[in-house]
């Protein structure tokens, strides 16, 4: 059954210890062993100070099984489902215009100790809501970025400046956490697309 994403709808049935490093800047494709139980993904951007529609960016997490699909719909954390069914990922909420904070406007907090055993990897994405209708892309959104960091210390593991690195795109597959030999690792993916959240839903649901 197709799974479509509209705001206001319910989900329905649907090898390095970073504690020892002050700053990490992973490039695309690079991987690192976390050595952490809690990480956060932050998405930030400036509000539209001109005419036209507000910039509504969204951070989402897809919790995937061994077949690279959601075991059930409630393993997708996004604006209409702000906590995963296992309680491992919690969203700070939906910022529809970038005015929530001078820093991260949306945050996904991940407690890896709570992740369901069926989950083998977690994909993090950033998208622009209704980008096609509003004729928007990341290049128009000043100071837009997505980052993953140590929840306790705020030390960044990886970061992309969306307005510079993905100026003509409207969706980014930022990175993934994945299990390997009983440990969690992070891979910086950094692939941009001209699509929206629906693109990733069609791919992973």
How does this structure look, described?
- By secondary structure, the protein is mainly beta.
- The protein has one domain (19-123, 136-171, 178-204): Lipoxygenase-1 (Sandwich), CATH 2.60.60.
- It has helices at 131-134, 162-165, 197-204, and strands spanning 31-33, 38-44, 57-64, 76-77, 89-91, 106-111, 121-128, 145-150, 156-161, 171-180, 183-193.
- The protein has a six-stranded antiparallel beta sheet, covered by helices on one side. Strands 5-6-2-8-9 form a five-stranded antiparallel beta sheet.
- The longest helix is centred in the last third of the chain and has 8 residues, at 197-204.
- It is globular.
- The N and C termini lie close together (10 Å).
- The model is unreliable at 1-24 (pLDDT under 50).
Chain-wise SSE layout:
Blueprint: E1 31-33, E2 38-44, E3 57-64, E4 76-77, E5 89-91, E6 106-111, E7 121-128, H1 131-134, E8 145-150, E9 156-161, H2 162-165, E10 171-180, E11 183-193, H3 197-204
Antiparallel strand pairs: 1-11, 2-6, 2-8, 3-4, 3-7, 5-6, 7-10, 8-9, 10-11
Tell me the CATH architecture. Answer: Sandwich
Count of helices?
3
Provide the structure class: mainly beta
Portion in helices: under 10%
Number of strands: 11
Q: Compute the gyration radius: what is it?
A: 16 Å
Approximate strand percentage:
25-35%
Which parts are unreliable, with pLDDT below 50 for 5 consecutive residues or more?
A: 1-24
* Main beta-sheet strand count, sense and barrel state: 6 strands, antiparallel
Name the CATH class: Mainly Beta
Tally of distinct domains? 1
In the CATH hierarchy, what is the superfamily? sav2460 like domains
Estimate the global geometry from the Cα principal axes. Answer: globular
Strand order of the largest sheet: 1-11-10-7-3-4
